[in-house]
Amino acid sequence: MGVRKRQTAEAKKEANKSFYVAKLNNCPTSPRKMRLVADMVRGMNAYRALNLLQYTSKDAAIRVEKLLSSAIANFELKSGTRAGDDELYIKEIFVDSARQLKRLRTAPQGRGHRIRKRSNHVTLILDKKVNTIQQQ
After folding, report:
1. Beta bridge partners of 103
2. In 3D, which of 90, 35, 43 has the Cα closest to residue 60?
3. Domain span holding position 84
4. 118-129 burial, b for 16+ CB within 10 Å, e for fewer?
5. How would you write the pLDDT of the chain (136 residues) with one tens digit per residue?
6. How far is CA 17 from CA 44, 127, 135, in A?
7. Residue 133 domain-assigned?
8. Intra-chain end-to-end CA distance of the chain, in Å
9. In 17-118, which residue ranges form alpha helices assigned H by DSSP?
10. What are the two backbone dihedrals, phi and then psi, of residue 96, each rounded to the nearest 5 degrees?
11. How many domains does the chain have?
């Protein structure tokens, strides 16, 4: 590995130490349905989002709630402190499509229609709020 490549890798590692990430891979829900829930909580306070997801009737909300609680646990493990009520917020949450299972459904006159069972990957990044008020 070259010197420049090593330096950029070290810089990326340092930058990632301030973020707290949780990933959910191969979730058997269509990405479109999962994005509805992800859009609902993007930019929110972490505990407020947990409360909202708990009472949302969508099936994808259960999975995102579990992912968010995992990200909060990652924060507590990485920083060594308990998470306060106002300091964590969802910096980024994005949903990518994953593999599709392709199945055939019987159709009239000897034909078959394709069924695509979609799945997705969800990545959630938490960050701490920075107080902009300077103490003098």
Report:
1. 115
2. 35
3. 20-128
4. bbbbbbbbbbbe
5. 789 999 999 998 888 777 889 999 999 999 999 999 999 999 999 999 999 999 999 999 999 999 999 999 999 888 888 877 668 899 999 999 999 999 999 999 999 999 999 999 999 999 888 755 554 4
6. 21, 10, 26
7. no
8. 47
9. 31-41, 46-54, 59-79
10. -115, 150
11. 1
CATH label of the domain that carries residue 107: 3.90.470.10
Quick check: 6 and 115 in contact, CB under 8 A? no
Q: Which two tokens stand for residue 5?
A: 């490549």
8 in any annotated domain? no
Tokens (6 digits) for 127: 């960050």
Residue 136 located in a structural domain: no
Distance of alpha carbon 27 from its chain centroid, rounded? 11
Cα Rg of the chain, angstroms: 20
Q: Report CA torsion sign: 53, 57, 61, 66.
A: positive
